[in-house]
């Protein structure tokens, strides 16, 4: 299985092959740069929907569009607030802004705005919040605007408000348009900052650990070359529509690329240094080093690729759109690990390690460091060390069951972001359910007979729904005088096709919280009984719920389904891959068990820190999926590296001593790689999104736990206890 890869690395580490390999990579970068666009040009934000668009809320939204076509564009909510009460002077300022929004001077992208300035004072006052401290005015922008255009319009409105001088009254813009504009502002230069921070951090850590400027800069040069190729391949894919280029995936891919290539560089030059102490020729030394290191690189790259490919089976759009971006990146990274890395270090030879140049006379490998001491303790007391760590890890696993998840992504934005502040002002001063009213659709396969009996049935349904728990209101109710006069029905109540009736549905609770989701689930489950109790036939009439709460309920279901499928497939596939590598049945099961234990304990301890030390009530529902895929896929690298060396040593030493030697020899490189990988993911904590902050922290914490405790002590203890005695 490894023969083709070993033939490849034998060539790329030879004198001629190394030069040809570097030339090929440079040509690839130049050609891609000249002929292909950057991925940045085609990045999009994935929507919170399913890849097929067939979930109940999506079906309801499609029916709503078909039966009640609207020319409404992208809504923006203008929020005005003053502590205490809005004054008459404040109303004058608001009227001035409203008048401008209705004039020819307004931005041309604004389709319509509520004419607040032309309403009578008593009507204006009815629009205030109950405590008269807050006012909401909505406007619509043209549909399908670019995010940059939306940002420009929002900035124009803010500039006009500043010129009017609100005199201390708080003015924020929220709603879809406000959120879109703020998102663009937040991430305008985020990728560049992320790349620079990553490069700087890796360089500093490599300098501190290896004290060689050449060793520190070389992995970064390699990563820069590989990124140049990956970026342009993704750009070609975006240009030709091969797959979606998700902006979040590209940002995290950048971290993955630099971190994994640095890991592979550490694996290669650590073994290369060993071989240079045994023989003079730099090419023969690299040939020997890469012969041994190619196995962990191939298997670790293969497992990471397999983990990324399993994302294709997910149905939640953001998860599914991660799959192609990461799969392409991992393939190129794996190729670079077997070609570019060994060829560059082979050509550089001993100079790469300056000022600590390895010499042949130093051939005896010394293992007197901290990892040698740890390995001796592992060999001496495996049951005690393994037992203590198992108890500690199980405490974390137990805490995993108490994690609370949030489906309100706006809470992931910074607290001072205008759209979040505006939303929270509305949340504090208006009834919670009015933040995102639901739409109930009564849809028939045939035309409804338009008569008093139909409207009486609908009124009865309105009454039943209104009596449900956590329901604030269901409107409209058709009055007796309207029953026989269809023309007097409320606007957008009855579809022109006469096949659908539209009701507005407001909840008592926050539309993004669990109580609201549970209410919609209960109503969906009760659809048949609700229709029968109202007098409708369930054979050709259906109830549909559209709106944010219904959408978040479907997101919850998709997330649960994807977690189960993804966790199961990744666990099974990676165990099989480890079986091929170890040529064993028991060892891959043990290795996979430690990886899963590491993940669940990390999530559990992380949740305790988030809740008790950082004050979070809930974390993003996406965090477990992202953390699982990356933590398991990357954590397995160190498993493979350790076990590969133990197997090699077991051909010369008794099993217990082989495990100890494996830990002592690989402990330094694995801990260095883990430290760099953790620090690289920690860079995400500088990003403005709470979701990225928590993901960065979780990954950094999990990798450190995995590197120093699981891989350094727990797994070796288990291998000593379950392995061969001689």
UniProtKB/TrEMBL annotation:
Belongs to the resistance-nodulation-cell division (RND) (TC 2.A.6) family. MmpL subfamily. The chain crosses the membrane at residues 192-210, 217-237, 249-269, 290-316, 322-347, 383-407, 563-580, 589-610, 625-643, 663-686, 692-721. This is SSD domain-containing protein. PANTHER family: MEMBRANE PROTEIN MJ1562-RELATED, MEMBRANE PROTEIN YDGH-RELATED. One of its GO terms (cellular component) is plasma membrane. It comes from the Bacteria. PROSITE patterns: SSD. It is found in: Cell membrane. It is a multi-pass membrane protein. Residues 592-720 form the SSD domain. Its main location: membrane. Keywords: Cell membrane, Membrane, Transmembrane, Transmembrane helix. It holds the Pfam family MMPL.
